[in-house]
Specification:
globular, TIM Barrel, Polysacc_deacetylase_ArnD, 10 strands, three-stranded parallel sheet, alpha/beta, chitin deacetylase, polysaccharide degradation, chitin deacetylase activity, membrane
């Protein structure tokens, strides 16, 4: 009997040793007990709970959520750049009073300033014909090196009551130019413009970026920077219907439209914009004219639409 008891004890300890070995190998598993009550009797259920590395689906879900978050942020920034809210435009106008972003007018004054960059080009004649047809006016920002190819167009722009501003000698970011080079370019372009002692001196920096040094240099030369608040990004988006729809969706009294010459679709998208403005009862004018209307309103004069 003693021998049998000893054998049973040895077998018992061997089983315990095997179970302990399994437990050590599966160290990332642990047992937990859960008490449940069935028929007024308490029972204990033993279950295994994993405490090791997270499951693969959990990692994928976290990764997808991170990508979704970044996508939402990126799209939000892109939307603000594409359709800047009025509050941002108002802040920029307050922050940089020497730069024109818009000329806010009362809702009864359905005027907008129409501006065209990268002038002159082979499309400019079509653009001038459209402006004449719709009885609209615009401010043309010229690139100096393009003037010699179309000298007669600047004369026509001036003779038909439009306005000429300077965009730079080349299609390049103006903020990269030194003050000396910027002044040199402007003075060189001035010699190529039609004589007009009453010309308001507008400058639109290439790429749309400016610096405080640029503002001060231009002020010393009698120039004012003009940007805008309605911009369809037409150099990058070559779909005239989309660009025109974007412009018309952003129209507000005293808004400044930025569009571009020199593209094969420039005249087509402008025609759609002018047609839409006319249908809605809006008048497209030069920067100086809308600035004058704004000044008259500040002085207490509300002008009629005709």
């Amino acid at each position: 009997m003693r021998l049998r008891g000893i054998i049973r004890r040895i077998r018992y300890f061997r089983i315990i040793a095997v179970l302990s070995g399994i437990h050590r190998k599966l160290g990332w598993m642990r047992t937990s007990s859960k008490h449940i009550k069935v028929d007024d009797e308490e029972n204990v259920i033993i279950g295994a709970q994993k405490v090791g590395p997270p499951a693969l689906p959990s990692i994928i879900i976290r990764l997808l959520l991170s990508i979704l978050f970044l996508l939402v942020i990126t799209l939000s920034i892109a939307y603000v750049l594409y359709k800047p809210p009025t509050v941002i435009i108002n802040y920029l106008q307050w922050k940089y009073p020497d730069v024109v972003f818009h000329f806010p007018l009362p809702s009864s004054q359905k005027y907008v300033a129409l501006t065209l960059d990268d002038v002159p080009s082979s499309e400019t004649t079509k653009i001038l014909d459209l402006l004449q047809r719709f009885k609209a006016k615009a401010t043309f920002f010229v690139i100096g090196r393009q003037i010699s190819d179309y000298p007669q167009l600047l004369t026509r722009i001036h003779n038909e009551g439009h306005e000429i501003g300077i965009h730079g000698w080349a299609d390049e970011p103006s903020y990269k130019l030194s003050s000396v080079e910027l002044e040199h370019q402007i003075k060189k372009i001035e010699t190529m413009l039609p004589l007009n002692p009453d010309r308001f001196k507008w400058f639109r920096p290439g790429s749309g970026w400016f610096t405080t040094d640029m503002i001060e240099k231009l002020k010393s030369m009698g120039y004012k920077i003009a940007l805008g608040n309605i911009y369809p990004h037409d150099p990058q988006i070559g779909f005239p219907k989309i660009n025109a729809a974007h412009v018309l969706s952003m129209i507000k009294p005293g808004g400044v439209i930025i569009m571009h010459d020199r593209r094969p679709y420039s005249s087509e998208q402008l025609e759609l914009v002018l047609q839409g403005l006319a249908t809605r009862g809006w008048r497209a004018q030069t920067l100086s004219k809308v600035q004058e209307i704004k000044a008259d309103i500040v002085a207490g004069k509300l002008l009629p639409l005709n």
